[in-house]
Amino acid sequence: MSYNITTPNHVISAICHLTDNRELPEEDRKDYIEFEKNHPLDHFTIKGEIISRLTTTSDLAEQDWPDYQVKLRQALSVTALPATTIPRRRYIKPIIWSCAACLALVGSLLLYYYFKVSLPPGSQPGDQNQQLAALTPKPPRATLILGGNKTINLEEVKNGWSNQQGGINVIKQAPDSLSYEPFSNPETGVYMNTLVLQRAGTYKVRLSDGTLVRLNAQSSITFPSSFTGPVREVTLTGEAYFEVAKTNKPFIVKQNDNKIEVLGTRFNISAYPEENKVKTTLLEGSVRIITPGQTPRMLMPGQQAIIQENATGIDIKEIANPEQAVSWVDGNFSFERLPLREIMYQVQRWYDVQVIYEEKPDPSPITVTKISRGLSLTEFLDALKEGDRFSYRVSVDNKHVFITK
After folding, report:
1. Residue 337: what pLDDT?
2. CA distances from 384 to 147, 210, 232, 254, 363 (A)
3. CA distances (Å), 23 to each of 13, 71, 76, in order?
4. Rg of the chain in Å (alpha carbons)
5. pLDDT by residue (tens digit) across 188-237?
6. 331-403 CATH
7. In whole angstroms, what is the distance from residue 371 CA to residue 102 CA?
8. Strands (E), 319-359
9. Contact between residue 402 and residue 121 where contact means Cβ atoms under 8 Å apart
10. What DSSP designation does 381 have?
């Protein structure tokens, strides 16, 4: 018997067939796999609520749904599709529960298709946001590119992992921390290393001279394993906080054609390409801002230098609370008169989502002293929109935020 799996009803028939412990005909497997690629089981709207109403035991409760998907996919020999594996519990499913499962899935599919038609693709009604978008920041995903282009996925190596780069030992100190420690003559071979951090995390690295660097989400830094020349020079993309060790060698941070030169200081640089500007905030010491075609400018503590893309000159202003620029180092968001669009750049990087504007966002500046980065996506958005600043929806897969007002 063939089910011709091309519609939701055909899927229901196939699942009922499997639940009754019968084999699914071989000719239907390819059709089913193709269907599920386009309509993943994880996206059946409010499936858990329907299932819990139709069952009175834990046999097909919400917490068992991932296990049920595993069984279904195994029966179909669907090895290419990911599924969450949880401790297996074996049940003898009476026919009544088989029918309940089918009815639940029918209701889920009908609701799924209703929402798919009545809402923009990938979105859900606003009152579903809390249960659908409990998205919290992920562990840092970082890659270290060593000399010779050897690439290390830092998520996959244990704390204590080390690698020799000339006279320097590179050591993973913690899930979000590296250190470069001299063990012999540091000038015995110098290698360029690059630390690349993905969205949703921060990472810190202590360079061979003792300088501490904290990378913000979606950033990278390139640096030598040891500083042997007359200057200490690194290249930054994205955002980083620096505590520069004091030596007799200038420390230079390059960002495209711009340079920030210091001897020993604490400062923050934000240079994300999508924001079209470089912001340098000085907390301690002094720095010199060097940009092509412009006279170098000195920055004092409590000042911020802004270099706009395609603009002439360096804009320097006093800021009341320079520590606000490095609030991310302490695990917080802090916004001082920023428009919603600039705030959403940070949301995209931290929560690894894409923000889509259904209407032009209000350009009015927003000031928020502190919001924890440990909040879920919807908790953060609810705190940010306090006072009806904007409205939003979050997609089922937690990958898109729709700004609706």
Report:
1. 85
2. 43, 38, 40, 34, 15
3. 12, 13, 9
4. 27
5. 678 999 999 999 899 999 999 999 999 999 999 999 999 988 999 999 99
6. 3.55.50.30
7. 44
8. 332-338, 354-357
9. no
10. H
Whether the pLDDT of residue 331 is over 80: the answer is: yes
Rounded mean pLDDT of 129-154? 74
Please state, in angstroms and rounded to a whole number, the distance separating the CA atoms of residues 238 and 197. 10
pTM for this one? 0.65
Q: Residue 292 gets which letter from DSSP? A: T
pLDDT band at 15 (very low <50, low <70, confident <90, very high): low
Question: What would the mean pLDDT of 149-154 be, rounded to a whole number?
Answer: 92
Q: How much is the pLDDT for 29?
A: 61
Are residues 383 and 333 in contact, defined by beta-carbon separation less than 8 angstroms? no
In the structure encoding, which two tokens stand for residue 290, read together?
């060097």
Short-list 151, 150, 187, 154, CA closest to 168: 187
Q: Facing residues of 333 across strands? A: 371
Residue 106: pLDDT over 60: no
Alpha-carbon span 399 to 317, nearest angstrom:
36
Structural domain boundaries in the chain: 8-118, 138-228, 331-403
Nearest Cα neighbor of 378 from 397, 404, 398 is 398
Hey, what are 254's tokens?
């390059």
- Predicted pLDDT at 2: 43
Element (H, E) at 340: helix 340-351
Name the residue type at position 93.
Answer: K
Tell me if 237 sits within 8 A of 308, measured CB to CB.
Answer: no
Can you tell me the distance from the alpha carbon of 377 to that of 391, in angstroms, rounded to the nearest whole number? 14
Kindly state the percentage of the chain with pLDDT values over 90. Answer: 40
